[in-house]
Amino acid sequence: MAQPLQSINLVAPAFKGVNTEDSPIAQDPSYADVADNAVIDKRGRIAARKGIDVVTTNKTELGTDYVHKIHYFYDDAGNEVVFTAGNNKIMTGTTTLTDATPGSYTITANNWKIVNFNDKAYFFQRGYDPLVYDNATGLRTFTVANGGATAATLKCHEALAAYGRLWVVDNATDTQTIYWSDLLIGADFTGGSSGSIDVSKAWPDGYDEVRALAAHNNTLIIFGKHSILVYGGASSPASMALVDTVAGVGCICRNSVQHIGTDVLFMSNTGLRSLGRTIQEKSLPISDLSLNVKTEIISLINNRTLPTASVYSPENSFYIITFPDQLTAYCFDLKGRLENGAYRVTRWTSIPHKSFEVKTDGTLYIGTSDGLGTYSGYVDNTTAYRFRYYSPGLTFGDPAKTKLLKKLRPTLVGAAGATVFMKWAYDLATDFKTYEFTVGNQVPAYFGVDEFAIGEFTGGELTTRNAVQATGNGSIITIGLEADINGSALSLQEINVLALMGKTV
Q: Global pTM?
């Protein structure tokens, strides 16, 4: 007797993000094998990321280089300046990048750490005297200062503004001594209540090097490469004391550290970690927030040649870390964690993202070779980009039976005018069959679904459901959907699969 046609719905495909760690035929269908140039939207659907709206129209000073660093400065008087670093210069402005490098100050690198402190901006980079930018009375002037200490001492790689002071560490000769400034005076590291601490004897495994600093709950967090030190009472640094240590987990890149409200995220040599859970659980693997993409993250960490960049966007509820030389970024959705403790994650591929910064109004700036852009719209500087989703291997509960696909019906939200490619393959093969269609620009129907299979049944959003004739058969099915994003948002709500269940293999 012939088997009846079965209808199987993949509801909210990729809701749990990418999983490249587990076997593709043993995964929950809510995972994705591929989720490129995607985010998890506020309704829990996989969706196309926004694009880059380049706002710079004059990048003469940047030349052929890219924006390595973005910093947003603001003071109590409401003055704002956007700084960028690139082409061995410090620049200001957004539409026009203007060279603001102090006269006679020569720069041959662009790996600045910039912090705002007491209405001034402080610029630190290993091998360079610190720069201080003072916006008082609208003068907008730079000064070169060594804080009263020897120039070599403060030519530091890492800096932190916290507890009414500046904290700096990691110069060319010393990765063990942390210096703090006088109270409310960021340019004084020798007078008043300034001071320093040597942490060389505090590392739990005997030796490490300071890589990053963070402030959290009146503690000073000192990240080594392989361990973490926690000093309590940091508001009175002369009497602060070591209150906790973590062995076996450290921070491998300064620029990965981001405060996300009640916690701090950082990249270790095993992936993305939470400071709070790492301290609570010490070195247990449950704190690995990138568990579902662990292997590929570690590979990118080990093979990077350019500094990483990261950003936390409260407005979008995501943390992004990019590897500029690999043209790959990972977007971690912070709206909740999965059962294994990891964040949902998607990839941004073949991207021009080199650096990030968030303004107080939520604007997310992105640094590129074209200058500054904002995270908005759905094109990358007038160029379309490719959204890609691929399911894990689907067995529909019976891996032994042959499946004969008949139809695939993707439900798309938005995507007006987009060219879409429906994909399917069998038994984990890579030779996908493809059906191409274009989403129309019709006005949604007001009642149910009209003759064009377009309706307004998801709260006013243009929704389309296309029927794709599928062919072939196999025991394991992989379904994919790609789309060229060229001006319109796109979310994938579900995929309806019509198939016949054949004989047992």
A: 0.94
